[in-house]
Amino acid sequence: MIKVDCDQGSPEWFAAKVGVASASGFDRLVTASKKPSSQANDYLYELTAEWVTGEKKYIRPSYWMERGVEMEPEARESYEFMVDSEVEQIGFIYKDKSKLIGCSPDGLCGDMGLEIKCPSPINHVSYLLQGVCPKGYMAQVQGSMWVTGLKQWVFMSYHPEYEPFVITVDADPVFQKALDEIIPPFVDLLKEARESPKVIELRGDRLEKAA
């Protein structure tokens, strides 16, 4: 586990993530049913293109995405108050020295990680009613444990007008096995793509122009 000490959303953070398979994108590799995803090829091309251009793919933030960024510090403080413990903030974590796989936890607290979401009221209440980690975030949560080696991850949904939804998710042996089987071959393809003559040529041109 290699930690990158930077603020999430900073230029250093984006640079650390360029061309890297991140837990937030693991749902494009492994489905909630623990099967290979049909989106893997598109994800491979996207990450390789980022490596060439040196830029993360731009995604226009929605209102709720922007609001989530704004509300995250408040949500983290709320969690710290609940557990009476300080949360360590981390920019990015690489799984190993290859720096091809990683995750951006919203915090580390003892031997657990933390994933914070600040959704719309309707989504937040639906999480409270369901009482489980939403399937749409399971690959990210299990993937973050796979990257860091931690055995538990806290999922928190926060909305200031309602009680928070907090659940501790244990590492699922079946999901972890699926990650073990699916992600390393993908990383091998990512390495091959980076070493292909065309990618080397395109990246070299970009670096030369930037010099």
Fold and architecture overview:
With 211 residues, the protein is of the alpha/beta class. 47% of the residues lie in helices and 15% in strands. It has seven helices and eight strands; from the N terminus they run E-H-E-H-H-E-E-E-E-H-H-E-E-H-H. The chain has helices at residues 11-17, 40-53, 63-83, 121-130, 138-148, 173-194, 197-210; strands spanning 2-4, 21-22, 92-94, 101-103, 107-109, 112-117, 152-157, 165-170. Strands 1-3-4-2 form a four-stranded mixed beta sheet, sandwiched between helices. Helix 2 (40-53) crosses helix 6 (173-194), helix 2 runs parallel beside helix 7 and helix 5 (138-148) crosses helix 6. The model has no long low-confidence stretch (mean pLDDT 94).
- Secondary structure tally, helices: 7
**Could you tell me the number of beta strands?**
8
User: What is the N-to-C order of secondary-structure elements (H for helix, E for strand)?
Assistant: EHEHHEEEEHHEEHH
What is the general shape? globular
Please tell me how large the radius of gyration is: 18 Å
Sketch the major β-sheet.
4 strands, mixed
**In order across it, which strands form the biggest sheet?**
1-3-4-2
Q: What descriptive keywords fit this protein?
A:
211 residues, 8 strands, four-stranded mixed beta sheet, alpha/beta, 47% helix
Ordered list of secondary-structure elements with their pairings:
Elements: E1 2-4, H1 11-17, E2 21-22, H2 40-53, H3 63-83, E3 92-94, E4 101-103, E5 107-109, E6 112-117, H4 121-130, H5 138-148, E7 152-157, E8 165-170, H6 173-194, H7 197-210
Parallel strand pairs: 2-4, 6-7
Antiparallel strand pairs: 1-3, 3-4, 5-6, 7-8
Helix pairs in contact: 2-6, 2-7, 5-6
